[in-house]
Amino acid sequence: MKTQPKRYENIFKIIDEIKPKLILEVGTWNGEHAIEMIKYAAKHQPNGVRGIYYLGFDLFQDITDKQIELENSKKVKADYLQVKAKLDKVGCKFNLIMGNTRETLKNHPTISVDFIFMDGGHSLLTIDSDWKNTRRFCNRNTVTLLDDYYPTDITKGCKALVDHLPLKSYNLDFLEPIDEFENNFKVQMVKVTSK
């Protein structure tokens, strides 16, 4: 694994725990997390990477500068064909969907997945839409990992969504470690499962 914020360790802990075969990622970006998740999950499958199916959603190079600002996204755009070429080399089954997840998630044929990693747009509208549209990919055992829970900021990220999820329907695990950046800005991940 490459050096990255410590909270990303949670992805691999969950993969060890649930051993997913079908992974859905909202916010594929440059494909690096996709490749790490696929290779890590493959360790738990008798057919290795051939036993993994990855479904990734992103705007890729179609993201506009205005969307980058509104979504508080990474400034460097990722190219769909480059990401596809990277995944081709990995050898798993995969499907990359380019477009705005507010449309692409709700219009994609439903399949039941084991693990959802949500790390796409950071606006409240996009996160709310992504959450609602990924629910139809869930079965009773699906684990959803939401990135970008900002404990002190409800204007972006998944805090507003997570803090209003009905506890009678969902188990919420606020995961450690919490990454801390300049100006005491903190980020953590939240694991969500159905009750």
Strand-and-helix sequence, N→C?
Answer: HEHEHHEHEHEHEE
Spatial extent as radius of gyration: 16 Å
Largest sheet properties: 7 strands, mixed
CATH superfamily, called what? Answer: Vaccinia Virus protein VP39
Q: Which quaternary structure do these chains form?
A: single chain
Number of strands: 7
Q: If you average the pLDDT, what whole number results? A: 95
How would you describe this protein?
The chain is an alpha/beta fold and 195 residues long. It has one domain: Rossmann fold (3-Layer(aba) Sandwich). Helices cover 31% and strands 29% of the residues. It has helices spanning 9-18, 32-42, 65-70, 80-90, 101-107, 124-134, 159-162; strands at residues 22-26, 53-58, 93-98, 113-118, 138-149, 170-181, 185-194. A seven-stranded mixed β-sheet has the order 3-2-1-4-5-7-6, with helices on both faces. Helix 6 links the parallel strand 4 and strand 5 (138-149). The N and C termini lie far apart (32 Å). The relative contact order is 0.17.
